[in-house]
Design a protein that fits this description.
One of its GO terms (cellular component) is cytoplasm. This protein has eleven helices and 14 strands. Helix 1 packs parallel to helix 4, helix 2 crosses helix 11 and helix 4 crosses helix 11.
């Protein structure tokens, strides 16, 4: 284990460049790196007492020079419990000589991965002059959507919808503190009002059932659906998924984990073949389920920037 690094949360977040990582993800697809990578199905273990889920997501790529495995645990927490629901770490080893290279904070790596892939998809799918962003949710993933979309589009207005107005107000205050840009920031308590006229909508909640009808979506809206899902439903109603061009990281996995409605979905490689002008002229949804090849790219990105 000589020379193996521990890369903590702060280092992962400080070293990452979301726009650069998004470009690296697109290049990986363009150059056929995903096709050459070893990407077995992830393993999920369910524990009953105490209730928990354990996940293992391996990936290997000679192109990246890496073998990784992201392992995580999900423990439901009672109200007032200060421990995080999710813990994760990523072990990285050389795919050229087998030497262990690093152990990285998995939660931080997931955050930069989600922001980067959302930025990559949004940059192709959202109209070029998108000015209004609606974020549904106020957690860690909602923050990544704020970072991702504002990195690739000239957003002027951000609306934050949450079922608890105080959570939305705190999120808006955090944005105001984070950026010097003169953004119009709005707290919304009505979902339909929040999405009316929005050019980009991001859903990032733990809900595994639709947040609402989403009846007032614009015809050209792009949606990043990043939160809860199961085989029967996710944050968006089936009607929205059925009426839009849907993109996802892996179609068979999306069908298995997020429902048969993904039968007509496109893999992310479609971003290379469908012109941006065509995508931006219609309603698009990035129905994200996560994938180890994105963790692989995020790990490579961080390790390269440590040198």
């Amino acid at each position: 284990m000589h020379g193996m690094k521990w890369v903590d949360e702060q280092t992962v977040l400080q070293r990452a460049d979301i726009v650069q990582l998004a470009a690296e993800m697109k290049d990986f697809l363009r150059q056929g790196g995903r096709e050459r990578a070893l990407l077995p199905p992830r393993e999920v273990l369910f524990q009953q007492d105490p209730e928990a889920i354990y996940v293992s997501m391996p990936a290997a790529s000679v192109d990246c020079g890496l073998y990784i495995n992201k392992v995580g645990s999900i423990f439901p927490r009672a109200a007032g419990d200060s421990l995080p629901t999710v813990h994760a770490c990523v072990v990285a080893m050389s795919a050229r000589h087998g030497r262990p290279l690093a152990l990285l904070d998995g939660a931080a790596l997931t955050r930069i991965k989600c922001a980067a892939v959302a930025a990559m998809v949004t940059d192709q799918c959202a109209i070029a002059d998108a000015h209004t962003l609606t974020i549904c949710g106020t957690g860690v993933q909602a923050w990544q959507q704020y970072l991702a979309v504002t990195a690739v589009r000239p957003i002027q207005t951000i609306r934050v919808y949450a079922r608890r107005p105080e959570a939305a107000a705190a999120f808006v205050a955090a944005i105001r503190q984070h950026t010097p840009k003169p953004l119009i920031l709005q707290v919304e308590t009505d979902l339909e009002q929040a999405i009316a006229g929005a050019d980009v909508v991001a859903t990032a909640t733990s809900a595994e059932s639709p947040l609402g009808e989403f009846a007032r979506l614009q015809p050209h809206v792009h949606i990043n659906c990043m939160g809860g899902h199961n085989e029967q439903s996710r944050e968006l109603p089936w009607s929205v998924l059925q009426s839009a061009l849907v993109l996802t990281e892996d179609v068979p996995m999306a069908i298995a984990e997020a429902g048969e409605v993904h039968q007509q979905a496109h893999p992310l490689e479609a971003l290379l073949t469908i012109p941006a002008q065509t995508l931006q002229a219609q309603r698009t949804v990035f129905s994200s389920i996560g994938h180890a090849w994105l963790d692989l790219l995020a790990t490579a990105h961080v390790l390269q920037r440590l040198d």
